[in-house]
TrEMBL record:
Stretches assigned to the Major facilitator superfamily (MFS) profile domain: 32-448
SUPFAM superfamilies: MFS general substrate transporter (SSF103473)
Protein name: MFS transporter
Gene3D superfamilies from the UniProt entry: MFS general substrate transporter like domains
Keyword tags: Membrane, Transmembrane, Transmembrane helix, Transport
Organism of origin: Sinomonas terrae
Transmembrane annotation, as ranges: 28-46, 66-85, 97-115, 127-145, 157-181, 193-213, 259-280, 292-315, 327-346, 352-375, 382-406, 418-439
InterPro entries associated with the record: MFS (IPR011701), MFS_dom (IPR020846), MFS_trans_sf (IPR036259)
PANTHER family cross-referenced by the UniProt entry: INNER MEMBRANE TRANSPORT PROTEIN RHMT, PERMEASE-RELATED
Keyword Transport among record annotations: yes
Membrane topology according to the record: Multi-pass membrane protein
Length: 459
């Protein structure tokens, strides 16, 4: 390990009070994480609730299967185009204001789905949902990398990621329940009530974020002066390390080979995530032989409940470079194997086994997400982080655009009653992610990863 710069040595050795640093991290987690989880909870809910409305939109508004597949994916085109600009604007205006703005505007668009009248309007609204939500996820990843040192960052990413299983566990029965409730009202359709109600939730979450988020440790009213100093100094040490071996500035980050490397890994992950998520209600309905509603919503929540525990506990324990690499590789392999297993169970008509495999696939891809984000945040800082994290997330998320189209194409080319080949195509990309994660073994260690072994951050 190279000798630290004088300022770094001083901070590492004496200026950072370990007890105060731990206290500051603990307080920051308590004050910031619940609001961030709520924002992502509502975002994920509004992004994936179309799965519950597919049959009703087809029956009531004539939205075809092809239009639905395009709409499910076109969200990610708007998302990809505006992701990097949104992240740069977050850097300029501050996370508190910008994350609130994102939530309020996408809530308005999400509520507007209640008025969908045809294929074109459905696709336009899906595109606009992507545009308005762009920047939320990478903005939070960047925000957390400015608040939490490397040693605990994967743990914080994992807590943030819990919004995904929560949104599916609580959101799946909630979406199904709102549809059932709306259908009983008489003056509206159930799917309209679901879209409108869940859109309003996002608007309320955005307003709350304005009051509950704080841009930086230095401005945090919930920290005392010693805690502010300890946390600010710890982050300064890391920034110094990241500045030494990471790209400088926006264009350097977007041209950096490592940024593109992790973009490919994230793309492979998102194909598995969205290929599974979009079709989960229909798959469970098929396995149970029931219509999408309350019961299907309840069973659809099971994989996310298991995933919640996997995500949290593995994220907590992944605090060394070797653990992140080894577990990351194994979890990508698991994701691929379990997705292929679920296809096999569908082909051989074994519904219980199918649900077990889907559950294990969801647990694997949820747990590997926070570990994957540890890599780019270990060498990106400042404007380079805004651009690099935005690029990885925007292009990686195009996996969400490719997944439904690829799944449909494979099912058309090689039709089976269970649609097995479409599912298998999703799993193959996870194996590519596993190989690329393993090959990080041969990368030069990022300087901020070397800090993982410094005594300051040991818990």
């Amino acid at each position: 390990m190279s000798a630290p710069a004088p300022s770094e040595r001083t901070l590492t050795a004496s200026s950072i009070d370990d007890a105060k640093l731990k206290s500051a991290i603990s307080k920051a987690a308590r004050h910031l994480m619940p609001m961030l989880v709520i924002l992502y909870f509502v975002a994920f809910l509004d992004r994936t609730n179309v799965g519950f409305a597919q049959a009703a939109l087809k029956a009531d508004r004539g939205v075809s299967d092809a239009a639905f597949a395009l709409g499910a994916g076109i969200f990610f085109i708007g998302y990809a185009i505006f992701e990097v600009p949104s992240n740069l604007l977050l850097k300029r205006f501050g996370a508190r204001f910008w994350l609130a703005r994102i939530s309020i505007t996408w809530g308005i668009v999400a509520a507007a789905f209640a008025f969908t009248s045809n294929d074109v309007m459905f696709n336009v609204l899906r595109f606009l949902l992507g545009v308005t939500e762009a920047g939320l996820f990478p903005g939070v990843i960047m925000f957390l990398s400015e608040w939490f040192p490397n040693k605990v960052r994967v743990q914080m990413f994992a807590i943030f990621y819990l919004a995904q299983p929560f949104s599916q566990m609580i959101g799946a029965p909630m979406s199904g329940g709102l549809i059932s409730f709306g259908d009983s009202l008489g003056f509206a359709r159930g799917w309209q009530v679901m879209f409108f109600g869940e859109g309003i939730l996002a608007i309320l979450a955005g307003i709350a974020a304005l009051f509950l988020l704080t841009n930086s440790p230095a401005k945090a009213k919930f920290l005392d002066d010693d805690e502010k100093l300890a946390l600010s100094n710890a982050m300064a040490v890391e920034d110094h390390a990241r500045n030494q071996d990471g790209p400088k500035g926006i264009w350097a980050a977007m041209a950096n080979w490592k940024v593109w490397y992790f973009t490919v890994i994230y793309f492979a992950l998102q194909i598995a995530v969205y290929g599974t998520t979009f079709y989960l209600p229909q798959e469970v309905a098929g396995l149970l032989g029931k219509k999408v509603g309350w019961e299907v919503g309840l069973v659809s929540a099971i994989p996310w409940l298991v995933g919640l525990f996997a995500c949290y506990f593995l994220g907590r324990a992944a605090h060394t470079v070797a653990r992140r690499r080894n577990w990351g590789t194994l979890l990508y392999i698991g994701t691929g194997l379990f997705i292929v297993g679920s296809a096999w169970a569908g082909m051989t008509n074994q519904p219980l086994l199918g649900i077990v495999f889907i559950t294990l696939a969801v647990a694997s891809f949820l747990a590997v997400g926070p570990i994957t984000w540890a890599y780019p945040t270990s060498f990106l800082t400042g404007a380079a982080a805004a651009a690099g994290i935005g690029l990885i997330n925007s292009l990686g998320n195009l996996g969400g655009f490719v997944a439904p189209l690829m799944r449909t194409a494979f099912n058309s080319a090689m039709p089976t009653t269970s649609g097995a080949w479409g599912v298998i195509s999703l799993g193959v990309f996870a194996f590519l992610g596993a190989l690329m994660m393993f090959l990080t073994k041969f990368f030069r260690t990022a300087k901020s990863d070397e800090l993982l072994d410094e005594p300051v951050m040991h818990h």
